[in-house]
Write a structure and sequence with these properties.
Elements (H helix, E strand, L loop, with lengths): L6 E6 L6 H8 L5 E5 L4 H6 L18 H11 L5 H15 L5 H8 L9 H17 L5 E4 L4 H7 L6 E8 L2 H9 L10 H22 L3 E5 H6 L1 H11 L13 E4 L15 E4 L6 H4 L2 H15 L21
Parallel strand pairs: 1-3, 1-4, 2-3, 4-5
Antiparallel strand pairs: 6-7
Helix pairs in contact: 3-6, 5-7, 7-9, 8-9, 9-13
């Protein structure tokens, strides 16, 4: 009997959106593996040149039982793993940047001939997905890489069941989050954060226009206000009928995970209370708020964010991102 195509929930959108926590919540279900930012497996797991080469379980990717098995199987047909890893990361940079999203979509729809190297690159990613499915992700693999062009390209694979989850967050909250460094994550100015926010979300919307029922957009704010309901919505979109791991009060117990790099919050374990985060209303300066609002105004209303914010939500006990 033919092997069932791995089912992938690829998360896209800009960073600091709460996708790490969402992935770890889904990871609590049987047969579901949140792999974090799988895009960086070659850079972190083989070259060990990324900002963080540790797995979410606390071990290095080379020592982690799951990723060591995947890397060993992946490299078994590769005489020089280091040379291959350099080749893959160069291809990723050349073909999977945000600006490549429209081209990758056209290829996925069969409208244009794939660019040289893209099929080889996607073959390697598909091989890794299949290996991860055999290591415990047989029902769903949650990939939080957040590269819109990669999500677009993967939609064209007939050997994968890919659904794209676009997560958005108020850019002013994102700007505040980026004002502070997080261990190995450097801070970013509000203007730069806003430009990235716009570019990544517009690219993700291109996917939505093309993917039809294989695309879902959710907001960080809805996830934090109604976590059980939104997680249930995501589960149904991903093709799972499980009950949400989050209870009515917004509590969830997080165990270990095997995420490849990502937000340091991926290391959080134990009982976690999901609540809204309204700190940007009082902690982001008026000047920074004005800068972010001006740069992102065209998309604020589209996502339901007021240009002149009104109600302030209660302060959270936990920050989602």
């Amino acid at each position: 009997m033919a092997e069932k195509p791995p089912r992938i929930l690829y998360v896209t959108g800009w960073m600091r959106s709460g996708s790490t926590l969402l992935g770890n919540v889904l990871n609590e279900l049987p047969g579901v593996l949140h792999v974090g930012e799988l895009h960086y497996l070659w850079q972190n797991g083989v070259l060990e040149s990324g900002t963080n080469s540790d797995c979410g379980c606390g071990l290095s990717l080379r020592d982690c039982p799951l990723w060591s098995a995947v890397l060993t199987a992946t490299q078994s047909a590769t005489p020089d793993a280091t040379a291959t890893a350099h080749h893959v990361t160069m291809r990723q940079h050349a073909l999977l940047r945000t600006r490549h999203t429209r081209t990758r979509l056209a290829e996925a729809r069969g409208e244009t001939v794939p660019a040289p190297g893209i099929t080889e690159l996607l073959d390697r990613t598909a091989d890794i997905y299949r290996l991860v499915a055999r290591e415990g992700g047989d029902r769903l693999i949650v990939d939080g890489s957040k590269y819109p062009a990669e999500a677009a390209a993967l939609l064209g694979r007939s050997d994968l069941d890919v659904r794209v989850l676009h997560v958005v967050r108020d850019p002013r909250a994102t700007a505040l989050s980026y004002r502070r460094s997080k261990q190995y994550i450097d801070p970013m100015s509000p203007a730069r954060s806003s430009n990235y926010w716009t570019a990544f979300n517009l690219a993700s919307e291109l996917i939505g226009e093309s993917a039809g029922g294989r695309y879902l957009r959710i907001r960080h704010e809805d996830l934090s206000q109604r976590p059980k309901d939104v997680v249930t919505e995501v589960l149904r979109f991903a093709g799972l009928d499980d009950a949400s791991p989050v209870d009515e009060s917004g509590k969830v117990h997080l165990s270990g995970n095997h995420t490849v790099t990502g937000n340091p919050d991926r290391l959080r374990q134990g009982e976690t209370l999901i609540r809204p985060d309204s700190r940007w209303h009082t902690e982001l300066s008026a000047a920074d708020t004005a800068t972010v609002t001006a740069l992102t105004a065209p998309l604020l209303a589209r996502y339901g964010y007021p240009v002149l914010p009104g109600r302030v939500w209660p302060s959270p006990e936990k920050d989602l991102g």
